[in-house]
Amino acid sequence: MYLFELLPCADERLSKLEILGVTCNSKKVEKDFAFVCIEGTGADGHNFAGDAVKSGASVIIAQRDLGLENQIIVENTRKTYADMCAEWFGRPANKLRLIGVTGTNGKTSVTYMLKTILETAGYKVGLIGTIQNLIGETVISSHNTTPEAYELNSLFSRMAEEKCDYCVMEVSSHALDQLRVSNLPFEVAIFTNLTQDHLDYHKTMENYLEAKKRLFSMCKRAVINIDDDYSNQMMLGLDCEIVTCSCGNNATYSARSVKYKPDSVEYELLSGGKLEHIKVMTGGEFTVYNSMLSAVAALEAGIDIETVKKALSQMHGVKGRAESVPTGKDFTVIIDYAHTPDGLKNILHTFSRCEKNRLVALFGCGGDRDRTKRPIMGNIAVRNADYVIVTSDNPRSENPEKIIEDILEGTKGYNTPVKVIVNRIEAIKFAIKTALPGDIIVLAGKGHETYQILLDKTIHLDEREVINEALKEIGGE
């Protein structure tokens, strides 16, 4: 492919260069590659342009003069890289109907619900998200919620080649801020909610909001949860058609007569004076919102209501999202990805409504991430659970005990018993071995993850395996 096909602004001197690959990673450069210098949070690609030339790069795209012979200076290399990657694969996203989901919580559940609805309607569907990427039933590992531009367009290309009709994807605030998805034509975009998270990156909630809002400048139709405190700011100034959802407020679609059970929810979906009965086989208020947003997005994309109802009634949850782990005992164990204040509050509130003995909350907070949410989550735990176990999440380069100290600041002044066990495996086993009849134990933070990131290594940690080990140890005692 010639450079001018990838980069129309290339000057005449370089436009006819034959390009054999595009990358922003200097370690992946080969002969006759185009190397795009991107300023990252940890490193600046401009500092590696010389290495890229030595490895065979025939052109360098940069935001500033590097004094190199074959350099092209552009205003924003992130946007340029996204455009070049799209062109490299023949703009495959244009061959798919895209539905994007953004928000702090609920993205994964909404995408899986949408995939189920669309497949029930007879479409082949690709999915891009936190747990894994899917092309139909083919599983492709996921490293980021929303991949970098090259990997993202590679996935779109595979989906198009395999005749996918739709792609439903989680769209992270990082991806929006870094312009990874800046050129994508979304048919429908969904806003779930906005609560404190990723402030280590965005610094302020205003910046976080503005990053999320970018998605709705790229879609034909926005589906907005207006019960969220940030919904008015999210909708302000949007040019696309806006469809609203609510539990009780006046909206385009609203959920009425909601009935909660430990393992399911039922409600009437009201729109235009017509009621439709919805049942989903997962508990929790968040399930009402997730399923309503999924249903509305599907309806707005042209799927009939009977197909929507049938698909949602057959859903049995998503791995690591309010996932009930069979124990064979007289207590219940739930695994959930809740790692934000709002997420923890929602999952604990959901199970506090259920008939039980004690609600036990086990959680930690990630290292090298927003420290301000740690005491907030500690406070939420002691106010919503009957017993709290504070442990490690992914401590990364931070001292786990220091992270726990931050969490414990929010637990002071409450009578709720709090136990600290730094090692997460030991903490889970303690929770299982000390469980009382009728207890509900919520393991929050890891969800679908099967690893733990420590200072010097990443270890295997699948909470389902730890639970089973603890159950076997109980049986041997």
Structural class: alpha/beta
Query: Please, how many helices?
Result: 17
Q: How much helical structure, as a percent, in the residues?
A: 25-40%
As residue ranges, the low-confidence spans are: none
- Dominant shape: globular
Short description:
The protein is of the alpha/beta class and 477 residues long. The protein has helices spanning 3-6, 12-15, 49-54, 77-88, 107-120, 149-161, 173-177, 199-202, 205-213, 231-235, 285-300, 305-313, 341-352, 373-384, 400-408, 424-433, 463-476; strands at 21-23, 33-36, 59-62, 71-73, 97-102, 125-128, 133-135, 138-140, 166-170, 186-191, 219-225, 241-246, 253-261, 264-271, 274-280, 323-325, 332-336, 359-363, 387-390, 418-420, 440-444, 451-453, 458-460.
Task: Show the helix and strand layout.
Layout: H1 3-6, H2 12-15, E1 21-23, E2 33-36, H3 49-54, E3 59-62, E4 71-73, H4 77-88, E5 97-102, H5 107-120, E6 125-128, E7 133-135, E8 138-140, H6 149-161, E9 166-170, H7 173-177, E10 186-191, H8 199-202, H9 205-213, E11 219-225, H10 231-235, E12 241-246, E13 253-261, E14 264-271, E15 274-280, H11 285-300, H12 305-313, E16 323-325, E17 332-336, H13 341-352, E18 359-363, H14 373-384, E19 387-390, H15 400-408, E20 418-420, H16 424-433, E21 440-444, E22 451-453, E23 458-460, H17 463-476
